[in-house]
C-alpha cells in the first residue's frame, strides 16, 4: 500500500485497456473528418491503435499536441517520459536531510562527557568541579611570542584576564559592565585589582596549547581573591601560578566601596574554600624616588587602545610600562620568573607617567651562585603620585645558563 502510494506520486497511473474498450463501446465508433484551415495540413487520425509496451501506450511518432474539432489546442498525451519527476528538486531535498542529520549528530557530540562539566558550544571554555572552576584553552599564536621565541609576560597576563571575564559570563554573572554582576551594574560598581602575584616556571612557545584554570574565593570582608593555574594541555605540566586580590570601586566617584549584600548574594555561591596557589609575599615593596632609582624612563602616555571599557588603563599595560625601565643587559640574558605588583591608583588617557627601576642588592650572594636578580619598580605620575609598586625576579635564560655556569667555574679554578 505504501509503495503504491509513493510510486503514484512520481509516475502516472495508466487506465486499464478494459475500461477504455468499454468506454469506446458506449460512445460508439468515432470517425475523424479531415478539416482544412487556412494553409494548414490535413490531420488524419490513425485507425490503428498504437502498440502497447508493458501496459503503456507508446507513440510511434513524436506528438507535440493536437487540435480538437473546435480548433483549440489540447495538451500532449500523458506519457512516461514527460511525467518523470524533477530530479534536481529531489536531490536538493535529500541533501537537506543529510545536512540536518549531520548537524544533529554534531550537537549530540557536544554533550559533556562528565556530569559535572558544562560545555560552551561557542568554544569559550567549560565549568568543572561542581561549577566552581572555569577552564579554558589558549593556543599560543605567532604574534604572541617575543624575541626569545616564547610567549611574553603580557600574553600570559591577557590569558588570565580573559579567563576571569569568561568565568563570570559562563556563570551567568556578567552584567553590562566589564566583569560586573547585574547588581553591581545597578549600583555603578566595578572590580579593580589591588595586588597581583605571578610565578612563571616555564614560558610556552609558538604552537603550544595552554590550559588556564581559575576560581574565586573570599578575601577578608570586602575583597575577593582570584587564583589561576596555567598548565600544558597535553602534558599537564604546570607553567604559571598566579593569585590576585580584587575590591569594588564606584564607577562614578572612583572611590572604593564595600560589597553590598545584594552583590554578595550573587558571588558567594561561586566562592571556593581553598588556599591561594601562591603564599602571600610578605616582603614589603619599597618606594623608589629619584635618589634611589638607577634607571628612569619618562614621558610614558597611554594610547586609546590601552583603555578598557571602564575608561581606565588596563592593568596589563602597567606591566609593559614597568619593564620599559628594566636594564637592557638583564632583558637580554635573563627572563622574568616572578613578579609582585601593588596597584595604588588608576590613570587615565591624559596621564603622563614615569617608570623607575633599581636592581636590588639584597640577593647578591644568590645572584653570584645562581645568576638570579631582583628588581624594584615604581610607576608614577609626573607629579609624583604612585600608580604601581612592584618587584620582579629574573633567572638566566636556558640558552645562556650553561655558559654562565662555565664562567663561574673557570673563575673559581
From TrEMBL:
<keyword id="KW-0276">Fatty acid metabolism</keyword>
<keyword id="KW-0150">Chloroplast</keyword>
<dbReference type="InterPro" id="IPR029069">
    <property type="entry name" value="HotDog_dom_sf"/>
</dbReference>
<comment type="similarity">
    <text>Belongs to the acyl-ACP thioesterase family.</text>
</comment>
<dbReference type="Pfam" id="PF20791">
    <property type="entry name" value="Acyl-ACP_TE_C"/>
</dbReference>
<dbReference type="Pfam" id="PF01643">
    <property type="entry name" value="Acyl-ACP_TE"/>
</dbReference>
<feature type="region of interest" description="Disordered">
    <location>
        <begin position="394"/>
        <end position="413"/>
    </location>
</feature>
<keyword id="KW-0443">Lipid metabolism</keyword>
<keyword id="KW-0444">Lipid biosynthesis</keyword>
<keyword id="KW-0809">Transit peptide</keyword>
<keyword id="KW-0378">Hydrolase</keyword>
<dbReference type="InterPro" id="IPR002864">
    <property type="entry name" value="Acyl-ACP_thioesterase_NHD"/>
</dbReference>
<feature type="region of interest" description="Disordered">
    <location>
        <begin position="12"/>
        <end position="79"/>
    </location>
</feature>
<feature type="domain" description="Acyl-ACP thioesterase-like C-terminal">
    <location>
        <begin position="294"/>
        <end position="395"/>
    </location>
</feature>
<dbReference type="InterPro" id="IPR045023">
    <property type="entry name" value="FATA/B"/>
</dbReference>
<dbReference type="GO" id="GO:0016297">
    <property type="term" value="F:fatty acyl-[ACP] hydrolase activity"/>
</dbReference>
<feature type="domain" description="Acyl-ACP-thioesterase N-terminal">
    <location>
        <begin position="1"/>
        <end position="120"/>
    </location>
</feature>
<dbReference type="GO" id="GO:0009507">
    <property type="term" value="C:chloroplast"/>
</dbReference>
<comment type="function">
    <text>Plays an essential role in chain termination during de novo fatty acid synthesis.</text>
</comment>
<dbReference type="Pfam" id="PF12590">
    <property type="entry name" value="Acyl-thio_N"/>
</dbReference>
<dbReference type="GO" id="GO:0000036">
    <property type="term" value="F:acyl carrier activity"/>
</dbReference>
<feature type="domain" description="Acyl-ACP thioesterase N-terminal hotdog">
    <location>
        <begin position="131"/>
        <end position="266"/>
    </location>
</feature>
<protein>
    <recommendedName>
        <fullName>Acyl-[acyl-carrier-protein] hydrolase</fullName>
        <ecNumber>3.1.2.-</ecNumber>
    </recommendedName>
</protein>
<keyword id="KW-0275">Fatty acid biosynthesis</keyword>
<keyword id="KW-0934">Plastid</keyword>
<feature type="compositionally biased region" description="Low complexity">
    <location>
        <begin position="29"/>
        <end position="40"/>
    </location>
</feature>
<dbReference type="InterPro" id="IPR049427">
    <property type="entry name" value="Acyl-ACP_TE_C"/>
</dbReference>
<dbReference type="InterPro" id="IPR021113">
    <property type="entry name" value="Acyl-ACP-thioesterase_N"/>
</dbReference>
Amino acid at each position: 500500500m505504501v509503495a503504491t502510494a509513493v510510486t503514484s506520486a512520481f509516475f502516472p497511473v495508466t487506465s486499464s485497456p478494459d475500461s477504455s474498450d468499454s468506454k469506446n463501446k458506449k460512445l460508439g465508433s468515432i470517425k475523424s473528418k479531415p478539416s482544412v484551415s487556412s494553409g494548414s495540413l490535413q490531420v488524419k487520425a490513425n485507425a490503428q491503435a498504437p502498440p502497447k509496451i508493458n501496459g503503456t501506450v507508446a507513440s510511434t511518432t513524436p506528438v507535440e499536441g493536437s487540435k480538437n474539432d473546435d480548433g483549440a489546442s489540447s495538451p500532449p498525451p500523458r506519457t512516461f517520459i514527460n511525467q518523470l519527476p524533477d530530479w534536481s528538486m529531489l536531490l536538493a531535498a535529500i541533501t537537506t536531510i543529510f545536512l540536518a542529520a549531520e548537524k544533529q549528530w554534531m550537537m549530540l557530540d557536544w554533550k559533556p562527557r562528565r556530569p559535572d562539566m558544562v560545555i560552551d558550544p561557542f568554544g569559550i571554555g567549560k565549568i568543572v568541579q561542581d561549577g566552581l572552576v572555569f577552564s579554558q584553552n589558549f593556543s599560543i599564536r605567532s604574534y604572541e611570542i617575543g624575541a626569545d621565541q616564547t610567549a611574553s609576560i603580557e600574553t600570559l597576563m591577557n590569558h588570565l584576564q580573559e579567563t576571569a571575564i569568561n568565568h563570570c559570563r559562563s556563570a551567568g554573572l556578567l552584567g553590562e559592565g566589564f566583569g560586573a554582576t547585574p547588581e553591581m551594574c545597578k549600583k555603578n560598581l566595578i572590580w579593580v585589582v589591588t595586588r597581583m602575584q605571578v610565578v612563571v616556571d616555564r614560558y610556552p612557545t609558538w604552537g603550544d596549547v595552554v590550559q588556564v584554570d581559575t576560581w574565586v574565593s573570599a578575601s577578608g570582608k570586602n575583597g575577593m581573591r582570584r587564583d589561576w593555574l596555567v598548565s600544558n594541555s597535553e602534558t599537564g605540566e604546570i607553567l604559571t601560578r598566579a593569585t590576585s586580590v580584587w575590591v569594588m570601586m564606584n564607577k562614578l566617584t572612583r572611590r572604593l566601596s564595600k560589597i553590598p549584600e545584594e552583590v554578595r548574594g550573587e558571588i558567594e555561591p561561586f566562592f571556593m574554600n581553598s588556599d591561594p596557589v601562591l603564599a602571600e609575599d610578605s616582603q614589603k615593596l619599597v618606594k623608589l624616588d629619584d635618589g634611589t632609582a638607577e634607571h628612569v624612563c619618562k614621558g610614558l602616555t597611554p594610547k586609546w587602545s590601552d583603555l578598557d571599557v571602564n575608561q581606565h588603563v588596563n592593568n596589563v599595560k602597567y606591566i609593559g610600562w614597568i619593564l620599559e625601565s628594566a636594564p637592557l643587559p638583564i632583558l637580554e640574558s635573563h627572563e622574568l620568573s616572578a613578579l609582585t605588583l601593588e596597584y595604588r591608583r588608576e590613570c587615565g588617557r591624559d596621564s603622563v607617567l614615569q617608570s623607575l627601576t633599581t636592581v636590588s642588592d639584597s640577593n647578591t650572594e644568590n645572584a653570584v651562585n645562581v645568576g638570579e636578580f631582583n628588581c624594584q619598580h615604581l610607576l608614577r605620575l609626573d607629579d609624583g603620585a604612585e600608580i604601581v609598586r612592584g618587584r620582579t625576579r629574573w633567572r638566566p635564560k636556558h640558552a645562556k645558563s650553561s655558559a654562565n655556569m662555565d664562567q663561574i667555574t673557570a673563575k673559581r679554578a
